[in-house]
Structure formats: structure tokens, C-alpha cells
Amino acid sequence: MVKWNCKANVVSYGVIINSLCKGGLVDQALNLFSEMIGDLSILPNIVVYNSLIHGLCNLGWLSDAIKLFDEMSNRGISANVVTYNSLIHGLCLNSQWKETRRYFDEMMDRGISPNVVTFTILIDCLCKEGKMEEACELFELMIKLGNKPTVVTYNVIIDGLCLTSRLEEAVKLFDLMVDRGLEPDDFNYNVLINGYCKSCRLDEAMQVFKKMKQNRLKPTKVTYSSLIVGLFQTGRVRTAQSLFKEMQCSQSPDLVTYTTMLDGLCKNHLIDEAVELFHSMEGNGFGARIYNFSILIDGLWKVGTVENARKLFREIPNRGLVPDVVTYNIMINGLCKNGMSSKANKLFVEMEQNGCLPDNITYDTIIYGFLQKHDVENALVLLQEMRQRKFSPNDAVITLLIPSLSVDQLKNLELFAKPIND
């Protein structure tokens, strides 16, 4: 305390401990706490304990938080709603529902009424776990006990309803929130827009987008990204491009938005525009990412520009990047589909030499490629290797394989079909 030139009392310690915990420096806060109760024999109060318990829970150090909670009780300091909220939040984040329920019940038994924060924490975690019936029941209980939901409370339950495809209920709850005099924020609108987009109801998504702007709320990058994904998925390519340009007039797209655009353009075979966007990303400060290379390489294969796809793949090491299994799978698939199974096999070998292990998709792709070239011998070698690695061929491989086999090979096929035990 001397180095901070503060008077050594519980208030001054409490202020510094709280600041350290908020900054994530919980270890330092605990050291100061030990100094406080040890060397100076200053008794901590509920404020100090709440700061520490909250900080520990935020870091996921639940056993330490519970230990401190018990120590606090042993000192005769009664927990309050803030203490329980911190513990419940930490337990919820770690899906420790039994313990969460225990502390919630204990809180009620001690006559400590849960507040809107308590209920919002619980509802949010239930929604994220997909337990919507329990979340809705808790929402009703909250209102019954006289707690008025905030915009944040509505946000979490509307989001949960959208994520579980209960869009009509989400819209009704949104309207109810407005009827009760609460102003929707950008998160509210984003959740609804995303829900409509995922249900391919783009006209309604665009109506919510329009209403959002009418209410003088600025669309965020999340807003634009959700709409662009939905528009591309429903084939409204030009509208997606117009929306991207509109976004650029008011804010700089982030990496997520750029990647969304790149993926949409490639999937809709607008490869020239995708290549232009790919280069503009780098010009706007977004360096090369392997997943963006993979998206563009896949797009180049799909429009038949074979050499451009191979050239871009060779460019990857020059950018300081390493192809991952997705990139290799795209390349192997492209080579096989273009009748270059020997080159695909060479890349398959290089892949593992470069430290990238093949997955189930890799094996399915290259085996299928060999079978299309009527190279049953190499296909069977890889099939055996595949089974040794505990992968299973997909239906397409099996369907193409069986007519290609001789009677003797068919007799041995059972070997490949059986899972290999440890």
C-alpha cells in the first residue's frame, strides 16, 4: 500500500483490489488481499469479497471462487445478490447446472431475492444450452416475481428463440418489448435479421433492416454480414453486392465481412469479382489468411480455371502460410475431378510429408478419384490405409467400388468394412 501512497484501510484496499480484478490481474489482487488480512490484520468486507469472487469467476477459477465464498461465510460476512450473481454466472458459463441450482436455491432460502441480473444470467445460459423451455419458464417466473426484463434480458431470450428456429415467438417477444416501452438496440435488430436470414426469409430481414435505419440505429458489421450471407444463399447476388457497397460508404468492412463476400462470390461463380476482392482485401490491411486462399482456390476449380487454381496454391508458401487439411482437400478434389489422379496422389503424399495429416474427406476424395479412373489397385491400397487410421469410406465410394471388384476382391471387402479395434 505504501507504494500507492494510500491510507491502509479496508476502503483503500477495496478500491485497488476492485481495479486489479476488473483489469484481469486477479493474482495481484489476491496477493494484496493476503497482505491486507495478514500483515495489517484489516478485516475484509463484502465489497472486497465480491470483487475477488467476480474476478475469479470471470477467469473460470471456480474452485478458488467457491473457496473464497466459504471463507467469507466463515468470517460471518453474509453474501448478497451481487455475490450470488457472480457465482451463478461463473457456474453457468461452465455448464455446472447442479451447482448453479444449489446456489440459486440457497440464495432464495436465505431470503435474498434474485434480481433482473440473476434471471438474465440464468436465461442466457439456458438459451445457449438450447434449453428454451426452461428459459421461457424462468422468464415468466421473473416477471411474476416483479422483476421487469431489460433490453438485455429480451436480447438473450429472443436470440435463443431464433437459434432454435422459433422465429415467430421471437418476433412476438420483440413486439412485446416495444409495447412495454423499451427501445430495441442494434443487438435486438441483428438477432432478428440473422434469424430471418437463416430461415431464408430475406424480404422480412430487409424490412427489419429498413426499420432499424428508420429508428436511427446504425447497422453494424454483424448486420451487414448476416444480410450478405442470406442474400447470397438465396441467389440475390446483386443485392448482396449493393449492400456491401452501401456498407463501405459508412464503415470499413472487417475480415468476417470480406470473407463472407469472397465466399458468396465464389459460390455464385463470379470468379473475376472474387479475385478482385481478394486482392483489395490485402490493399485494405487484411493480410492473407489460409481460409481465404482455400475459398478462392475452390472457386477457381469450380469454374474450370485449373491452372489459376494450381498457381494460387503454389503462391501460398510465398505469403508465409501453410496449407491446412481443407486447402489440401480442395486441391486433391480439383485434381481428381479434372482427371489428374496421379498428381492428386503426389499431393496426397506431400501433404503428410509437410506435417498435415489427411482426414476422412481426403481419403474419400482420392479413393473416389482412383475409382473413376478405374484404378482399383491403388484405390484398395488407400482404402486399407484409410481403415487402419479408423476412417470409414462414404456411400459414394462404396457405390463406385463394388461394381469395380472381382469376386475374390468382394470376398475381402468385409475386411475393409469392419471397424478396426484398438
SSE arrangement:
Blueprint: H1 10-22, H2 26-37, H3 46-58, H4 62-74, H5 81-93, H6 97-109, H7 116-128, H8 132-144, H9 151-163, H10 167-179, H11 186-198, H12 202-214, H13 221-233, H14 237-250, H15 255-267, H16 271-283, H17 290-302, H18 306-315, H19 325-337, H20 341-353, H21 360-372, H22 376-388, H23 395-401, H24 407-417
Helix pairs in contact: 1-2, 1-3, 2-3, 3-4, 3-5, 4-5, 5-6, 5-7, 7-8, 7-9, 9-10, 9-11, 10-11, 11-12, 11-13, 12-13, 13-14, 13-15, 14-15, 15-16, 15-17, 16-17, 17-18, 17-19, 18-19, 19-20, 19-21, 20-21, 21-22, 21-23
Secondary-structure element pattern, one letter each = HHHHHHHHHHHHHHHHHHHHHHHH
Q: Helix segment count? A: 24
What is the radius of gyration? 29 Å
The CATH H-level superfamily of the domain at 1-112 is Tetratricopeptide repeat domain
**What is the class of the domain at 1-112 in the CATH system?**
Mainly Alpha
Helix residue percentage: over 70%
Q: What is the averaged pLDDT score?
A: 90
The N- to C-terminal Cα distance equals: 60 Å
Low-confidence spans: none
| SS content category | mainly alpha
What is the approximate shape? globular
The largest β sheet comes out as: none
Total count of strands: 0
Strand content: under 5%
Gross CATH architecture of the domain at 1-112:
Alpha Horseshoe
CATH topology assignment of the domain at 1-112: Serine Threonine Protein Phosphatase 5, Tetratricopeptide repeat
